[in-house]
Amino acid sequence: xxxxxxxPQNLTAQEGEFITINCSYSVGISALHWLQQHPxxxxxxxxxxxxxxxxxxxxxxxxxxxEKHSSLHITASHPRDSAVYICAVASTGNQFYFGTGTSLTxxx
Amino acid sequence: DTAVSxxxxxxxxxxxxxxxxxxxxNLGHDTMYWYKQDSKKFLKIMFSYNNxxxxxxxxxxxxxxxxxxxxxxLNLHINSLELGDSAVYFCASSQAPLVGGEQFFxxxxxxxxx
Lengths: 108, 114
What we know:
The structure holds 2 protein chains of 2 kinds.
Chain A lengths: L3 E4 L2 E5 L4 E7 L3 E9 L5 E7 L2 E5 L2 E6 L4 E6 L8 E9 L4 E3 L3 E6 L1
Parallel strand pairs in A: 2-11
Antiparallel strand pairs in A: 1-3, 3-8, 4-5, 4-9, 6-7, 7-8, 9-10, 9-11
Chain B lengths: L3 E4 L2 E4 L5 E7 L5 E7 L5 E8 L2 E5 L6 E7 L2 E6 L8 E8 L9 E2 L3 E5 L1
Parallel strand pairs in B: 2-11
Antiparallel strand pairs in B: 1-3, 3-8, 4-5, 4-9, 5-6, 7-8, 9-10, 9-11
């Protein structure tokens, strides 16, 4: 079983919809990262968080340390948001684990 | 200006060969990483260096040897390449290890072993 589980695996949405991607982890963590991998393959870091909530433009990331769960929300989704979103955790044991990613397609 | 650069972008080679992938960052970061993304798009950390010292060394065959000549460079040398080494290799950097800020990724090097 993977230390980091994401859901859903695939997601299709209409432009303008509110999107939520979930990440659950089974290890103690120091920080959690949300990454975006573009269709061309490039990877961009969206957020690093260890508590609470962070917002950047239309993207919001939250984390609940007690429940070992994080969510990535996209408001007013746009076709350019189509990408793979990857959750990763830096464990307290100095390890780094990735989720398998959520493939998002936003249809105009 | 490219923050994290990798060369080459594509590498096609025969089994048994030795090859290197170079990575450079101009962000002034102390920590650099190598990741492998397999054919199923699953990412896995391979190595991490902080201030030229190895701090993470995952279960990776010893055919893979990272070398950090200075804080701005982390190269990956692979000996005796095998078919299973075919993957995309990403270099990344951050201000400090793992929790020291967001990571900046290079564009990736697609390695194909024939």
